[in-house]
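This section describes the prediction task in plain terms. A model, or a person checking by hand, is given the sequence of a single protein chain and must write out its three-dimensional structure as a string of tokens. No templates, partner chains or ligands are provided. The sample shown here is typical of the held-out split.
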Amino acid sequence: MTKMQNTYYKTIAGKIAEFRKQGFDDDQMEELRLGLEHGVPVSAYAKKEYFAVQMRQIRFGLEEGLDISLYNDEKYDWFQMEEIRMGLKEGIDASIYADPKYSYEVMRELRKALKDGIHLEKYATVGAEMLRELHRALLDKQNIMPYIKSGYVPEQLQEIRHAMKLGCNIDPYLNPVYRGSAIREITEGLVEGLDVSVYADPDYSWQQMREIRLGMEQGLDISLYSKNLYSWQQMREIRLGLEEGLDVDAYKSLMHSASDMKKIRQRLLQEKEKEDEAELSDAYTTDSLPTDSLPVHWEEYMQKLPADTIHFFVDEDRMKAYVYAGKAALPMSKEDLAAQLTMHKIIKGLDVSVVNHLISGSIKDQLVVIANGQEAVDGTDGYYESFIGETDYGIRMQKDGSLDFTDAYLFQRVYAGQKLLVYHNATAGTDGFYVDGKKIQAVDGKEQPRIRGRGFRLLGDSHTYLSEENGCAALHEHNLSVTKMLELSSADNILGDVDYDGTVYIKGDVDGNIRIHATADIVVEGFLGNATLESEGNILIKKGANGNEEAHITASHMVLGRFFENVDIHAEQIASNYFFCSRLYADKKIEVKGNNGSIAGGNVYAGYGISVSNVGNCNGIETFICVGYDKDKECDDYYEQSGEVEKQIAILCNSLKDYRKNYAPEVRNTMPVFLKLENALYTKEKELTELKKKAEQQKIESKKYESAYLEVYGSLYEGTTVVINDAVYQGKTIQGVMLKNIAGRMSVQQMKEKIIL
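The expected answer:
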């Protein structure tokens, strides 16, 4: 430590000691210490009346170079301070909402609206939820003021806005007494083209509306249950009975509870199934009895049996049982037959028609199947039915293994209200059985994770996803995004940079040192020259890129293109047919397709692995390949963030401890500050749990780095340096190899055969 540094830290220590004498608690002292260390004027918040969390917001503002005078006042709680600080940070005139009479929730909505250039301060008294709906309506150019004046609340307004967005004329059916869920049922009916006047009635609950709507969609006779005296559960049982083809007159009386209706419906369904089986059984005649052959050695055995014998057999797998009746076989009594079946352990799956024929004596000189086991049928996994086209990006593989991007796409055009996906639930497995009655356990299907993303709405059935935007949709794994789209003929004539909230689609080339940023995907139909592309989704450059070291491509997910020369790329995954003298950084994988696909020159990094035909070239071009753990990620900020949140939790706990110590429960539970502290503690504990979860996921991901690899199906040329988790390979040209770091040493294994990537 230099003399100057020593003096500096002594000065800080002296100031800290002085603050300690003034009676600041430990949490407040921590904020003062951090402020001193970061070189901010801590006198601005060195006030004992401030909670430590308030001090922190002031300190953050000072560190960010903001005018803290707007909120440096104890009349603001720390939530309010944070909203004012965020507004200042975003360049918004935060003075518009910097008023202690506004809750932090109201402040937040006013701030978000101002960020979009919308002034809502004159409506601040209506509350945060109403402000949120007003903000969203104005963004969508919707006029919801008539509905607000009519007394509709935010829950209702949300559904009204949705109907307006879908182009539904819902006004004739609205009633202020409807819950939001009821308005949603009416909207869904209008979308399906139903006569919603049948159930748009305040006498119905929204659940009753749903049952009537579902029946109308199925073409059922809803008049049998569309009486408001029925509970929605009773309606449901009648609807299900109609769907199953049952005579619902047997149980639709109001005297039956929903539970009773269910029991009767299930009994009727069982009886119907038995009747169906009996009809099938009656279709058999003696001449058309079901027969099945036994192995040859059983046929030889039967020839030796007496003419009046009746003999039973069971297959080794216990899935079939047979009965052989000789030419002179006599009818069997029910009692004798039952005893024989029990003795041979033929218990289940009996063919009623065969049993009856044995009793009547009509089976002669025949071998027939008397019982069939039933294989277990595993349930099917849940799946999403897509209405937005294929999700394979339209990229086709050519004969040589290279990729053809001619018809490639990243998204599908959609319109507001368009059906995007329908989820089909997993089905339960059906247990099977052996003829001896033992069960064969089936496996139930697994449900799929819920779709995440933005720009869509999930209907009340929890299965149907509708678009909320006119734009484009992209579904990748379980993430669905519907975004607005900016379409450009080319980027040649663009003046200045492009910063777009949505997808950017360019029909031509991109050049001219411009920057294009999109919150979703970027698609370039032509070539990329000297330009910068930044996407929070994927980037596709169909014809390829030659950037002369002036092209920079950054994507949160994938970067795809025919070829890349002299380009700087950062992405999660990168795929192409050819890379030349480029700088590539992929969090996960890099794939170079085709028998002639190559990485020649440049610096290339991939976290999990690289698959390529050729690396370097015959001229010995200098090429650097690094695969495996990224040392720059060793200090992952999840742990750092967790530590910060833990400190915040400690501060909040200490503050709550003081309140619990100094005030009786009936007093403190009415204090707004105490309640806000409790709410903040809950929020921060939830945040900490999420951060720790992400940290654990990061640990799992790090294991993939440990098994990092370089696959070279063609030639790994001399002049190439390969580093895999600190193990280094440099050598002469070799063919068809797999390189890995095994126990700290580079392993070079020969590939058995050339594979088209």
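For orientation: Residues 218-282 form one domain.
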